[in-house]
Each structure stands twice: as structure tokens, then as C-alpha cells.
Write a structure and sequence with these properties.
By secondary structure, the chain is mainly α. Helix content is 61%, strand content 0%.
Length: 289
Amino acid sequence: MDSRGQDRTPPNDIAAEQSVIGAMLLSKDAIADVVEVVREGDFYRPAHQTIYSAILDLYGKGEPADAVTVAAELAKSGDIARIGGATYLHTLVSMVPTAANGGYYGRIVREQAILRRLVEAGTRIVQMGYTGTGDVDDMVDRAQAEVYDVTDRRTSEDYLPLRDIMGEALNEIEAISNRGGEMIGVPTGFIELDKLTNGLHPGQLVIVAARPALGKSTLGLDICRAASIKHGLASVIFSLEMSRNEIVMRLLSAEAQVPLHHMRAGTMSDADWTKLASKMGTVSEAPLF
């Protein structure tokens, strides 16, 4: 195995890290921008991780986070010497061209951190390949998980005051009223339910809960039938309890009005076959996956 890659310095941008922290020490607005994209572990230098953590602690308590207050916080925790003393904090402040670029510097730091995680994941995947222990499919799954973890970052919400959202909400209400009562959501096929909900809408998470064997799967299939077969809207079915053939048999049974137990027992009559044949084209052409 080629060992040249082991001697390389992991991806990093020390100047960007210094500029991020310097901008944060100059402006609380820069802190707000940076925390959206950078985590403590994204810094390559441990000293920068320590300073970043101290800044966030002060910021979270609503206290000013400048070179003086952060130095005092680090002195209190016994970390001031480890980061290079208070002089280093003032050096960071003097290095920043403008605090307004804090978010931009933060994205550079984040990208370098992702590259480091990619290198680490690649190293682990190479070791897995050379070791070759265990089931091959399991090893491929673990390798894929390593790659996915590279970009696994905390999710952030776009928090906005109500006044900024109000106009968009009113526009949506006006657009709905101009439809003359026409349904704008995805129909479920259950008329009374659709009257109450106006269909299923983007961004919603709808959970159907009940005790076993009370028809949850059948209800889900019926909603997909209404969306895809009746209205031509794409839908996808994921099932941990039904095979593909089972799902198709249930759909055909519901559409053709052929009892499912006739299909399973092999006791379909000529009339059942005729009804089934008349619906097979409709079901197979529906955007249902």
C-alpha cells in the first residue's frame, strides 16, 4: 500500500480559520452568520476550536464576545495559555479585512473540514477493503455509510419573524380563494376527509396509527390509488411487510373489484378474470412506484 498519502497534511485553511474568529470577535452579526455553517470540530487547530467554543458560550449568554471578554473567559477556564495568550486574540482581530465577510470565511472552513472527513472516510474504506472480513454486502453498506457521514451536518431552520412571512401567507390564501373551491392538495379518495383537509399538502407529515390488522396498509394503498390511478399524480409505496407482488395483487383487487382471497386461493371465475384484465392497463400505466 502506498504510504505517500499518509505523510500529507490534512486539508485546512489556517488563514480562513483565523479570519472567521477575528470577524466573530469584531461583530456579533458575524457570530450569527458563522454559527449557521461552522461547528467547533470544523476547525483544524485545537486552539481555534477552544476560542470558538468560548465565543459561543458568551454569545449564548447574551454577553459581549470581543478580544477582552473572550480572553477573560479563557483565563477563567484555564485555557488562555493553550491558545497562545491574549495577544493571539488581538492578532486575530487585526488580521481580518472586514467582519462582514465572516460567513464567507466560515464556508471555507466548513469545506476544508468536509474534505478532511472525506480523507478520513476514504482511509477507513481502504482499510475495510484490505481487511476483507465479514460479508461483502455489509462492507459495501458500511462504506456507503462512511461517505454519507462526511456531509452529515446539523440541520438549520430559516427562522423568520412573522412580519416577514405574513405577506407570503396572505398571497397563498388569496390564490386558494381564486380557485373557487377547487381542491389544491393531493386527494385521498375519501370525500369527507378531503372536504376537511382539502387534500394532502406539501411539507406535511401525516401519520396513520392503529393497532395491528386494522387496515393501515390498506388505507395507505387506497390513498396512493386515488392519487396515482384516479388523478395521475406520482406516488411511491415503501413496505416492510408486503412484497411487491402482494402490493400489486391488492391494487388489482381493489380496482377490479375482485376478492383478494380469490386471487390467493386460485379460485377466480371467468368474470373475475375479465374484470381483472379490464383494469390491468389502467393500473400498470399509473405513475405508481
